[in-house]
Amino acid sequence: MPDYQSILEDIYQKLSLDPDRGEVASYIPELANVDPNAFGIYLQLVNGESYEVGLSQTHISIQSISKVLTLAMAIHIEGLNLWERVDIEPSGNPFNQLSLLELESGIPRNPLINAGALVIADVLVTHFKEPKKEFLEFVRTVTNDQSIDYDQKVLESEFSTGFRNYAAANLLKAYDNLHNDVEEVLDFYFHQCSLSMTCAQLAKAFYMFANKGKDMQGIPRLKKRYVKRINAIMLTSGFYDEAGEFAFEVGLPGKSGVGGGIIALLPNEFVISVWSPGLNEKGNSKLGMEALEMFTTQSNLSIF
Amino acid sequence: MPDYQSILEDIYQKLSLDPDRGEVASYIPELANVDPNAFGIYLQLVNGESYEVGLSQTHISIQSISKVLTLAMAIHIEGLNLWERVDIEPSGNPFNQLSLLELESGIPRNPLINAGALVIADVLVTHFKEPKKEFLEFVRTVTNDQSIDYDQKVLESEFSTGFRNYAAANLLKAYDNLHNDVEEVLDFYFHQCSLSMTCAQLAKAFYMFANKGKDMQGIPRLKKRYVKRINAIMLTSGFYDEAGEFAFEVGLPGKSGVGGGIIALLPNEFVISVWSPGLNEKGNSKLGMEALEMFTTQSNLSIF
Amino acid sequence: MPDYQSILEDIYQKLSLDPDRGEVASYIPELANVDPNAFGIYLQLVNGESYEVGLSQTHISIQSISKVLTLAMAIHIEGLNLWERVDIEPSGNPFNQLSLLELESGIPRNPLINAGALVIADVLVTHFKEPKKEFLEFVRTVTNDQSIDYDQKVLESEFSTGFRNYAAANLLKAYDNLHNDVEEVLDFYFHQCSLSMTCAQLAKAFYMFANKGKDMQGIPRLKKRYVKRINAIMLTSGFYDEAGEFAFEVGLPGKSGVGGGIIALLPNEFVISVWSPGLNEKGNSKLGMEALEMFTTQSNLSIF
Amino acid sequence: MPDYQSILEDIYQKLSLDPDRGEVASYIPELANVDPNAFGIYLQLVNGESYEVGLSQTHISIQSISKVLTLAMAIHIEGLNLWERVDIEPSGNPFNQLSLLELESGIPRNPLINAGALVIADVLVTHFKEPKKEFLEFVRTVTNDQSIDYDQKVLESEFSTGFRNYAAANLLKAYDNLHNDVEEVLDFYFHQCSLSMTCAQLAKAFYMFANKGKDMQGIPRLKKRYVKRINAIMLTSGFYDEAGEFAFEVGLPGKSGVGGGIIALLPNEFVISVWSPGLNEKGNSKLGMEALEMFTTQSNLSIF
Q1: What homologous superfamily is domain C4-299 in, according to CATH?
Q2: Catalytic residue among B67, B204, B255, B286
Q3: Nearest in space to D235 (alpha carbons), one of D270, D266, D211, D280
């Protein structure tokens, strides 16, 4: 077994010297206030061991990483029916997200782009009486951590600047692919994005995707065949138009968020979460991408 | 001078026999209730004479025809500055309206597509304290007809089904090309679309575009150079992706609305308005297009 | 009647002072050798009078202006059947010419974009045994000028650099919308583009479009209804993605070429040709566009 | 270890009953002559064992499967420089292949779409004096089988119908992303597509991608880090716009060809090749896709 602690510390030290941290996301005002030098890694092995370095216990806004967790809930509810409302193909360029939605008559390309995640949110809003409460409960349960909560300030930021999401939700509605009120779906969606978690908590939440659907308490949360498929979607579509690059350089299923968090995993082996708020030009954490590339190279672990 | 009354009657009789009336717009519920066999024409010569046939005095929902009137108001206010926020090129295919807006970073292709008309609406909302009242006042004044008004039922229909317009407005907002609240701009925009006018009133309202900017009372309402340019925009962009076809077959500047109305004009000669609610597959009045083609052929009048 | 000679001289003098001449086309090597300061205008009235200023008798490469002349030949042969193979709508952005062709399954948007002109060329190659000779003969006849000829050096340049045209022709072939060999059609197309004419000759060649189809000798060359329609296509599609701008600022049907020539006309009144090789960023002659705008403003003549 | 022979036979029997075989590719005339009921599978374990069923020893036209083999040769030559001329992102919809190339200024989205494979072909044409001979030699060497050869009849079919490839090559040339003559590159490209191999030979050729770069004789042919990356590209881009679906349902890196062949592999475990000429609507072998889905389900082997 590799000496994981040494590997993490080596990555941390080397990347800490990198003067180019990328750009902290500014379109959500609350995210722009984060220290660009923040950096943390948490590694959770499936065997129960864990390793960490840097700000692995600091709360961050998980943003789009939440899309994998809502997808897990929706696929549990809807099963294969889900794919009538959202496709599973990589989306290519991000600039044309609404364009794609128009071209493809309101069927989002996959559940990890915003339009797709809005459809997933709609499924949960339809199914649950109190979807925000249920989602929070789900995350708290699989992590066995009742302290996890929404960040009210980030939430307000989302509401006041989410014009593109309003546009996408209304376009979905025009195509009859949103069954609830636009406002209600966006309320849930902005909440899920505003969830605040540490790298450690994130790794625990995603443990089930590396462990055939069982969470850290050994409780089955998701069918094995769904786990396999969600991992496939993360690999092909987890990093916007850098998904191919990530598969190419890192070779793990994963998901990034505009808050600078990234989660990645090797089935049956580990979950790793990284946080550094500076983003590269594709919108993924710059140091996070580099850290994961170094980790798979040094540990010699990848699905390929 | 051609015998206009005979021409109109000939067109009316021939087209009345056409069993294929096209499809009445159904996406706005209130419009779907109109009699598909309704048909009327009104011809207003610049010299003051007028001719009419069929339901030329029935009120119809002018819908997108209103975009030319708000454009006239906005260009009067903003002059050339207007073109920093909206372009003047034909838009090609309609299916990709939001796509184009994304591709062109929030600058609508021209002021006669919905996105462009929303920017024009935003200009008026910024400039006037009571834009809905001012717009109504403008139309009443140039037609010298105080009876013109918004149709409340159509208006409610617009609000409850205008998801694409909500999407477009939010996307413009995301690109900082909408300065007022989305709701406020849409409130104005839905009002302008719901304006109810007869063919006769429409022809009178557009008289200024055929008469170098002076209305039927001889009062200057728009600078000559703006009239020339608005006519150019109507010719290249007045009929969605059938603009080329209309220029080709009819050869007049004009504008259609989804309510089945069409207005067209020959500078210094006449304004003609036609109404028949059935639409062709491009979204323009089927009989209206045919009537105008017959009219220019029989009268031998066109700009080309 | 306006004092045309004074107007032309005024335009010539004012624009001659403009230090910004645009960029001479460089992608065809032979065109890049032209003097960027060259500038000439020729005005041919329908009543027979003519006025000129500057290099109006210098030979230029007419390039895309030729598309209107081949269109006239093809519409004479095929009539309405032509529109089954090519559409008549404006094309919007030029960057996506092949994209549009793919999106629209091999039907070019209009006959004045390259793909459309290739279909027109194919029609002529099918119909004539010696299409290059026939085209030359047609131009010589309508201008009554046997000296007009292809420019061999430009022709070689076209062949060696026309990769985009090869791409478009092959794509048309893939969609079964090219009936002859790609090489044969391109041979004709490159010839038509390489035709060398003076501003004076161009104005004479286009006289028929301003004179209901009759050429300068009074001989009918094209049916009136085709003239009207070709003028409409020039207005909506004659200037790439600046067609709306040209209609807006100038208000005349016209066509530009990458050699820096522009032809424009007012039905029943005049034909005007301008040449200045520097192009604006849209690929139209910079001084040419400005000259025509000044001309319609000063002469107060436009179709709108 | 699963009972592979039983699994293969079970799949073979169940799928042999499927009346819907998809459509045999017709655009290449020579491919259209194949028996639509043909079906074979070959499984090569990394440990040296092999299993087969049906027509696993019949020669098929490998078509696009060849792209992975030329990519391996090119990456060996160019290393990371290769990625300046071709990207590694999934391409999404296939209908817009030339559109994407235009939108992205001549940089193909990945090396497994036709435009990307043409750039790869160009690299080999530049590097080798006799590229066709070298490619054949490479395939014969890694399979240790001198009988493999090009199929002359398929080759002629390619030349006479490859208009889209001519279009793509010329467009690449227009963007300066093809350094050799279009004809020369296409000559090589059509040869590689016409390579004729059995399922057994294909599995042996791809053995190196499952075995860290070493072929069946244990000879290193490709660096480990390149193997990992090519596998990643196969996973994200190996099945046109069904790549996401394949990752989702099968979960293996792989590549399909229009001849009905599919190759897929699990690193360190096995290579599997399937052939059935009928294609689904996405252009991948219908039975082939189903067979692989059944194989990973029954063997419980996948990268996820």
Answers
A1: DD-peptidase/beta-lactamase superfamily (3.40.710.10)
A2: B67
A3: D266
